[in-house]
Amino acid sequence: MTELYKHWCDTKQTPNNGKTLWLLSELNHGREHALRELPGRILNHYVSDEEIAESVKTLGHPDTANWIRTLLPERAIGRSGDLGEILATEFVEEQLGYEVPVRKLRYKDHREVTMRGEDVIGVTHDDNDGLTLLKGEAKSAQTLSRGTVETAREKLKEGFGRPSAHSLTFVARKLIQSDDPDRKELGKAILLEATNQAVPMRRLAHLLFTLTGNRVDQIIKNDLNGADDTHPQHSVNVRIGDHGSFVKNIYEKAGSLGDD
Which residue of 1, 132, 171, 176 pairs with 187 in a disulfide if CB–CB is 3.0 to 4.6 A? Predict the structure, then answer.
């Protein structure tokens, strides 16, 4: 898969004693890449390739396209919020090296309803180091306020900084149901964390991800400076000046992919 952020955004990364500030803005021709790359990725966060294939067998192409559109939010606020989570997930996997093993938006009760729990849970897992976790909050708005950032930071601090047992159990159950033995083992490791809080604090990272139209450099920098130093901390801002138009355009393109 083609890298998203590398070809879309100019990235300024500033590490400081375990806390990293990431400021991203569009490259001169980056929007063209985003418009090609993002619609397909968005669809994948709502519906798997396997589901699409089975739906085509059952419904045919036109009805499958119509069904997929019913999964995507129509309201601006729902699209903005979901896109923040999607881009945070893509950033975690592409830039931070974690896996986000469950695409949680596939399990929404309704396309306009937000899901409970953490916006992003990233993991790495191997025999030597065991399980490492990333807990992430994502915020998306044309104009993001300091209060919204403070609210996100408080969410990250909840539960002594750990992902909630509810969210971890949700991820674990989906993985344990897999036919892939590696997926099952990862699910079991996550379930142990949900019940026993087995992961040491040093293997728990935090992410505060923002997608905004306004400049929030100083707001997120001040917030990051005040964040605790118990965990590695990442604070990310992707600034898109025409935030509202961008979100609308991307979702319209995602919704039309099934017509091709």
Answer: 176
HEC string of 179-207 equals: CCHHHHHHHHHHHHHHHHCCCCHHHEEEE
Q: Which pTM was predicted?
A: 0.95
CB-count burial class (<10 Å; 0-12, 13-18, 19+) for 99: middle
The DSSP element (H or E) to which 219 belongs, if any, is helix 217-226
**Cα–Cα distance, 24 to 44 (Å, whole number):** 23
Answer positive or negative: Cα dihedral of 243, 206, 46, 182: positive
Containing 225, the helix (H) or strand (E) segment is helix 217-226
Comparison of pLDDT for 235 and 114, the residue scoring more = 235
> 246 near 39, Cβ under 8 Å?
no
